[in-house]
Specification:
- The chain is of the alpha+beta class and 299 residues long.
- The protein has 2 domains: 3-203 and 275-296, Creatinase/methionine aminopeptidase superfamily (Creatine Amidinohydrolase); 204-271, Winged helix-like DNA-binding domain superfamily/Winged helix DNA-binding domain (Arc Repressor Mutant, subunit A).
- It is 33% helix and 27% strand.
- Helix 1 (3-26) packs antiparallel against helix 2 (33-46).
- The longest helix is centred in the first third of the chain and has 24 residues, at 3-26.
- The model has no long low-confidence stretch (mean pLDDT 96).
């Protein structure tokens, strides 16, 4: 990794860490989820960077890929478990981090389980180590607390302007997707659920996060202009139609964006939910693998 890339990764991590530390004081029972999303995204921009993806707010059984759609009225329920997953990029170099806010005292130790699993995984990372060995560490810690890791959610290698680049880092021992490489960046993110949960996620019917997929001729000039804006502004990074309202207005976004979906110019990330509807906790940091270990950019 060259010096420019390393400095950008570190700056993105520093900003992500600052914003993550705001989250526990920001998230309250009864508040609108859209207010959380917009506050996190604006905090990133105020620090001179851009969101690497829309702020994810996963309540209870929602594990990933929920960001508020335009006009979202949903709120944080009492007694809930709230995952806030945020990403920052500086010149395309990404920091990805997450924290769980617990309003259910009975599940506070599930939050401790994913946090301890994350710390243990980070301590075990070194160049050449199999990712399955890190999955085993995560699995052992989570099961030691009496919870179940989610097997089909993984950490992931990061690339420039690419959230999921190459190697996946499992949360269980039985999956092997390669080895850690010196000079590469990875997001490590343990997920856990209760013992009576399925320990896996499935797609819900809802999709609120998208990425640019391909150029294609579309029917309306508004849709064509919107597609050009998406490709220019976000490149291959995920985005939300909510971010397009300032440029195109709410009604045009709703109509023109449907054309882009229909033409498969954009690809969606369905909201992921625990298969049996059980609550989910998450913790996440971004690391760069170095000789003998790794450097945590988001610490």
């Amino acid at each position: 990794m060259d010096e420019e890339a390393l400095n950008s990764y570190r700056e993105a991590g520093r900003i992500a860490s600052e914003v993550r530390r705001l989250v526990p004081s920001l998230v309250k029972e009864g508040m609108r989820i859209i207010d959380i999303c917009e506050a996190v995204e604006e905090a990133i921009r105020q620090r001179g960077a851009e969101p690497a993806f829309p702020c994810n707010v996963g309540v209870n059984e929602v594990a990933a890929h929920y960001t508020s759609p335009i006009g979202d009225l949903s709120t944080v329920p009492e007694g809930s478990l709230v995952k806030v997953d945020l990403g920052v990029h500086v010149q395309g170099y990404i920091a990805d981090t997450a924290v769980t806010i617990c309003f259910d005292n009975a599940l506070s130790d599930m939050v401790m389980a994913v946090e301890e699993a994350l710390d243990a995984a980070i301590s075990a990372i070194e160049p050449g180590k199999r990712v399955s060995e890190i999955g085993a560490v995560i699995e052992q810690v989570i099961e030691g607390y009496g919870y179940k890791p989610i097997w089909n959610l993984t950490g992931h290698q990061l690339g420039r302007y690419v959230i999921h680049a190459g190697v996946s880092v499992p949360n269980v021992s039985r999956l092997n997707h390669g080895r850690f490489e010196k000079g590469k960046a990875y997001a490590i993110e343990p997920f856990a659920t209760t013992l009576d949960g399925a320990g896996e996620v499935m797609n819900s019917p809802n999709t609120y996060i998208y990425r640019f997929s391909r150029r294609k001729k579309v029917r309306s000039s508004e849709a064509a202009s919107m597609l050009a804006e998406i490709e220019s502004r976000y490149k291959t990074l995920p985005f939300t139609p909510r971010w397009l309202v300032d440029r195109f207005g709410e009604e045009k976004v709703k109509t023109a964006f449907r054309q882009l979906i229909g033409a498969k110019c954009v690809t969606g990330y369905p909201v992921l939910v625990e298969r049996r509807g059980r609550k989910v906790a998450q913790a996440e940091h971004t690391v760069i693998v170095e000789r003998g270990g790794c450097y945590v950019t988001t610490a």
